[in-house]
Write a structure and sequence with these properties.
alpha/beta, 10 helices, 8-stranded parallel barrel, 3-stranded antiparallel sheet, globular
Length: about 400
């Protein structure tokens, strides 16, 4: 990791030049110190039954058993052959554990309320800016000028709802672009696109002025809104892309190599902007036993067997790495089953019908009054695929 930065403390505030980011962009792939960096990533939300992320992130003194679980989880993510972790809002300790583990980059997500009716509301934008400052303060309480954070990129917003986008655009026909210091949305952009540009520019400006570093920025779009948002003014393009969602929401050609609609849709996305890097920032399959079973090749929203989860992720990896239009890699959703998805009261049980609670590469199981994890076959399949690509 090589940055060159100089800090000077003047009247109580930092004044610093921008350092060179460790990760650089090609048209198709990231590069790290001149070497191609194919993203092999896993989403990690370090939440076990009885907790929810929005409460856990505020805790500064985690119990020792949870710290041990987090360290073990990160070791297991490395053991799968991953080189990247995608994080949302997490406690400071997660960055400490990542730093100790080494050899893992991370993608940091800045969350926006997907149901916000007016993204251009001044008070709401201030809350988004506050969230950025809080996230950066957690990161930089662990990392420093001498040991900068290994950030592959920031995801500024993920899966804004169609209703939120359309409502914001309808409320503000007068907004048709944003002119920022680092990020600008060109004339003709929508109010939502201008909002994303403004918040991304704020992140880059604040990080530069306060910490002397700058990193790549993107927005994670998805199949339900891919026709509404064009964020090619950001550093790279990101899509949360699930095979079953492509089947339901998107129109796609047949894939050129594997023949799947998922591959065909990704190829179409890349061909639309061939000189802009495209990363799959989420893909995965739920093994919720209460959902309808579909099977190969699209697998369905839940209802998959653990073995189908493994073969389905293998297919997605092959779709991405054999596409005729190069894709920069993928991030698997997710490492742990998310018992917390329907609130704290529900987080002590895992319903067979709650599809969102069953995407994990690691199942959570009760062990007396405690909990343990059990790796599913999909973990071993990724380990097989990704370890073969290790340098």
């Amino acid at each position: 990791m090589k940055w060159v930065a100089a800090f000077c403390l003047c009247l109580g505030s930092f004044v610093a030049p921008v350092s060179a980011a460790e990760f650089e962009l090609g048209d198709d792939y990231f590069f790290q110190e001149g070497e191609k960096f194919l993203v092999k990533g896993i989403v990690y939300v370090p939440v076990y039954p009885g907790e929810v992320p929005w409460e856990l992130v505020r805790k500064t003194d985690l119990p020792e058993p949870l710290k041990a679980r987090i360290r073990r989880d990160i070791d297991d993510i490395k053991g799968a052959g991953a080189n990247t972790i995608r994080l949302w809002e997490v406690p400071v300790f997660v960055y400490e554990a990542l730093k100790d583990a080494g050899d893992l980059a991370f993608i940091q997500t800045i969350w926006f309320d997907p149901s916000q009716k007016d993204l251009q509301n001044v008070s709401y934008k201030r809350r988004c800016q506050h969230a950025i400052r809080l996230t950066l303060s957690r990161i930089y309480s662990v990392y420093s000028e001498e040991e900068p954070p290994p950030i592959l990129g920031f995801i500024v917003g993920s899966e804004l709802s169609r209703a939120s986008v359309e409502s914001t655009d309808d409320l503000h026909p007068e907004i048709s672009g944003y002119d920022g210091k680092y990020i600008s949305a060109p004339k003709g952009s929508t109010a939502t696109e201008s909002f994303i540009a403004e918040i991304a520019d704020y992140l880059k400006t604040y990080q530069t002025e306060r910490y002397g570093h700058t990193h790549l920025v993107s927005y994670a779009n998805e199949a339900r809104t891919y026709d509404l948002l064009d964020t090619t003014f950001l550093d790279f393009r990101s899509f949360n892309a699930y095979s079953y969602a492509v089947l339901e929401y998107a129109q796609a050609d047949e894939g050129s190599a594997t023949g799947t609609l998922f591959q065909g849709w990704l190829e179409q996305l890349k061909r639309k902007h061939p000189n802009k890097l495209l990363l799959v920032t989420e893909t995965g399959l739920s093994v919720a036993p209460g959902a309808e079973h579909y099977g190969s090749p699209d697998y369905g929203y839940g209802g998959n067997t653990p073995e189908e989860q493994a073969t389905g992720l293998e297919q997605s990896w092959r779709d991405i790495t054999t596409a005729s239009s190069p894709i920069a890699g993928m991030v698997v959703h997710e490492y742990l089953d998310a018992w917390w998805k329907f609130g704290k009261e529900d987080s002590l049980e895992q319903s067979p019908d709650d599809v969102e609670e069953w995407f994990g590469l690691a199942a959570i199981e009760k062990e007396g009054t405690n909990f343990k994890t059990r790796l599913r076959p999909a973990y071993a399949k990724l380990q097989e695929l990704w370890s073969a690509l290790a340098p």
